[in-house]
Design goal:
The chain has 258 residues and is of the alpha+beta class. It contains 2 helices and 14 strands. The mean pLDDT is 87.
Length: 258
């Protein structure tokens, strides 16, 4: 009678087959895991890029006309909080009061007023005779729906708006890429020369992170208005996580009519 068991050759064959199957299974599982991880990283990069572009786009769409400017890796503009039509305006002489048409949001107290922002040079030149006024206070509407505006100091506007339009605003906002991060800056005041990262706030609430892993060499580009289209900002946001690189390009048309 033959004894039950395995021969050495059979054991070697089984071990060899199991080793081959194990290597194949490990490779398959490893490739699947790497593919899933890469998909997750690319999805996260895509989500960050979309959120950053959406936030910048929404703010640019309500930017003060002709306030958008770009230098290096920084984009700067002045967000508006509303606007209406004025009835009187200090133009020929300085003054501290004038009348506008309601409604004016009560939360606008302390905002500045801009009239006919025709160029970036005039927009950022804050002074006693400038496109942008000092901070303002607003009365409740009277029986004729007129709101009386009182400026914190005497001011005159250099020119009237053909449509008698004015904008409410506060301070500029910047988006900059610094140390592989996209930052949003606010509350730093006006400057005739566009500030770079070195001249912007370094902590909250003046600075807040928008996205990480940014490797864009030129994230923002401004194209001036032509006879057939408005000015445009081209967003070119590149994000990298390990070997995964995602490039998000988007164009935003700017409001140019002052």
């Amino acid at each position: 009678m033959r004894a039950a068991g395995f021969t050495l050759i059979e054991l070697v064959v089984v071990i060899t087959v199991m080793a081959i199957l194990s290597v194949g299974a490990a490779t398959f599982i490893g490739d699947a895991t790497d593919g899933y991880a890469a998909t997750v990283r690319r999805s996260e990069l895509g989500g960050t890029a979309r959120l950053a572009a959406e936030r910048i786009t929404r703010e640019l769409r309500v930017a003060l006309p002709n306030s958008v400017r770009v230098t290096g890796g920084c984009l700067e503009f002045i967000p508006t909080e509303g606007g209406s039509t004025y009835l009187t305006l200090p133009v020929s002489t300085v003054g501290t009061t004038f009348d506008v048409v309601a409604p004016i949001d009560p939360s606008a107290a302390g905002a500045r007023i801009a009239v006919f922002p025709d160029t970036a040079a005039t927009v950022y030149a804050i002074g006693a005779a400038g496109v942008i006024s000092p901070s303002a206070a607003f009365s409740a509407p009277d029986a004729n729906n007129v709101v009386h505006v009182t400026l914190s100091s005497a001011h005159r506007f250099p020119i009237e708006s053909p449509s008698r339009r004015f904008y409410l605003l506060r301070t500029p906002v910047s988006y900059c890429v610094d140390q592989n991060r996209l930052w949003r800056y606010q509350g730093y005041g006006f400057s005739v020369t566009q500030p770079t990262v070195a001249g912007l706030p370094t902590s909250e609430p003046g600075r807040s992170p928008i996205g990480e892993d940014v490797v864009s060499p030129a994230p923002f580009a401004l194209s001036g208005a032509t006879l057939t289209r408005n000015a445009e900002i081209a967003l070119d946001l590149q994000f990298q996580d390990g070997n995964d690189v995602l490039r998000f390009q988007h164009t935003v048309q700017l409001r140019n009519v002052p």
